[in-house]
Write a structure and sequence with these properties.
single chain, 471 residues, alpha+beta, BirA Bifunctional Protein, domain 2, Rossmann fold, 3 domains, seven-stranded mixed sheet, five-stranded mixed sheet, 14 helices, 23 strands, globular, aa-tRNA-synt_IIb, ATP-binding
Length: 471
């Protein structure tokens, strides 16, 4: 395999940029901080969307769509919210050749505009819970953009719900956290995330609690993969989201919001990628088996025909299949491209192997190549897809364990964060220590109970903090 990418161990950020370019996943847009997602990258995002959308709907939420432009006055109604987003806002002051009577903000997130309509649509306790989700783009003006990780415009889903009680809101925020986010990330993306509570310093602007899914990347840094927020009654009071209770009184609702984005694509690359390119978990892969004609033979019944028959058989078995019969392009170049794209399994069909009744099954996860009787290829592919889904998760989990250390002091935690994650008693860090860590580029990624479960507040006793450098 010719060297195409900068080795990860040599320069991880350069490797990341190389991979995105060489695998044709995305490109920089014409405005600084924007990105163009190319078909290969968008196909993976579509699979993430479909899997996430199914989980969100299973939790009872319905999809809707709200405007891209939000009156500036809406954001100002919730003081903490506008303060948290002010540095990132893109504001439109002119339209149609005239100055606008009121500036409008390009959607950074939709709590405010959705809150306005929740107030309009909710009247009685019978209207609750109201469970909404939208798939959209948002704009947050980034000073240090990086494709998929931090861009001025990105794609995401954002859920917004209103409930009659705090307990119901909390239960729903956690349901999404575990049943939609954690389940997708662990069982489809193969990324073993740690699920915990954000500190007050790190939580979403205007929230009363933020829950997070944190993944370890291939350089030992953390990536926030998705968050779910309890908003208390802050937005309900700001936008008068209220309802008539069964007892006849007027009560404010309790709201939540939650989101995941194209940042998950960056996490996929950095968690599973290697020096040859992407490694896409089979359950996620748009193309699970890539059938390649090495070289065609003479007449009928040659490799090209055999490859097409294999594609049909694999498709009938429920496998997402791609066919590469471009024999006018050197096979080595095509094989490098397939490695870069991270297709889980390649089935190589050439005259020599076919004469012996075989095709070669190549597994992207471990690079193994196995001559396989053509009649057994479908079973071999199905077995490889199942095994390699587990293998990618298990490799990532073992890497995280090897780069996570338990320490007892803040100083030790900051030192350990140079190469991975540190687990330290929250009581040894505290609000003051968190500020000291931040000054050195280290953040508290989340808080956990001693048994690994998610706490309700950061004031619970005996909590464990995970400290790391992060994207």
């Amino acid at each position: 395999m010719a060297r195409v990418l900068t080795p990860r161990a040599e320069d991880f950020p350069r490797w990341y940029q190389d991979l995105i370019a060489k695998a044709k996943l995305a490109d920089n847009g014409p405005v600084r901080g924007t990105m163009v997602i190319r078909p290969a990258g968008y196909a993976i995002w579509e699979r993430m969307q479909a899997e996430m959308d199914a989980r969100i709907k299973a939790a009872g939420a319905e999809n809707a769509y709200f405007p891209l432009f939000i009156p500036e006055s809406y954001l100002k109604r919730e003081a903490e919210h506008v303060e948290g987003f002010s540095p990132e806002l893109a504001v439109v002051t002119h339209g149609g050749g005239k100055q606008l009577a009121e500036p409008v903000v390009v959607r950074p997130t939709s709590e405010t505009v959705i809150g306005e309509f929740m107030a309009k649509w909710i009247d009685s306790y019978r209207d609750l819970p109201l469970l909404l989700n939208q798939w959209a783009n948002v704009v947050r003006w980034e000073l240090r953009p990086r494709i998929f990780l931090r861009t001025s415009e990105f794609l995401w889903q954002e859920g917004h719900t209103a409930h009659a009680t705090r307990d119901d809101a909390r239960a729903y925020a956690r349901r999404i956290l575990h049943e939609a986010y954690e389940d997708l990330m662990v069982n489809v993306l193969g990324i073993p995330v740690v699920v915990g509570l954000k500190t007050a310093r790190e939580r979403f602007a205007g929230a009363t609690a933020t829950y997070t899914c944190e993944g370890m990347m291939g350089d030992g840094k953390a990536l926030q993969m998705g968050t779910s927020h309890e908003l208390g009654q802050n937005f309900a009071k700001a936008f008068d989201i209220s309802y008539s209770s069964a007892e006849g009184g007027r009560e404010h609702a309790w709201t939540t919001s939650w989101g995941t984005s194209t940042r998950m694509l960056g996490g996929l690359i950095m968690c599973h990628g290697d020096d040859n390119g992407l490694r896409v978990p089979p359950k996620l892969a748009p193309v699970q088996a890539y059938v390649m004609v090495v070289k065609d033979g003479e007449g009928t019944g040659g490799p090209a025909e055999a490859a097409r028959k294999l594609c049909d058989a694999l498709r009938d078995a429920g496998v997402r299949v791609g066919l590469d019969d471009r024999t006018d392009t050197a096979f080595g170049r095509r094989a490098v491209d397939a490695e870069l794209r991270g297709y889980p399994v390649r089935v190589e069909v050439g005259p020599r192997d076919l004469a012996a009744g075989n095709a070669v099954v190549v597994r992207r996860t471990d690079g193994s190549k196995a001559p396989t009787p053509v009649a057994d290829v479908v079973d071999a592919v199905l077995a490889a897809l199942d095994a390699d889904q587990r293998a990618l998760h298990d490799q990532a989990l073992e890497f995280r364990r090897s780069r996570t250390v338990e320490v007892s002091t803040l100083a030790e935690a900051i030192e350990a964060s140079a190469t991975g994650w540190a687990m330290v008693p929250w009581s040894a860090v505290g609000v003051k220590g968190e500020g000291e860590a931040n000054a050195q580029g280290v953040t508290v990624r989340c808080l956990l109970r001693a048994d690994g479960s998610v706490p309700d507040t950061e004031d619970e006793p005996d909590l464990v903090a995970i400290l790391a450098r992060a994207y």
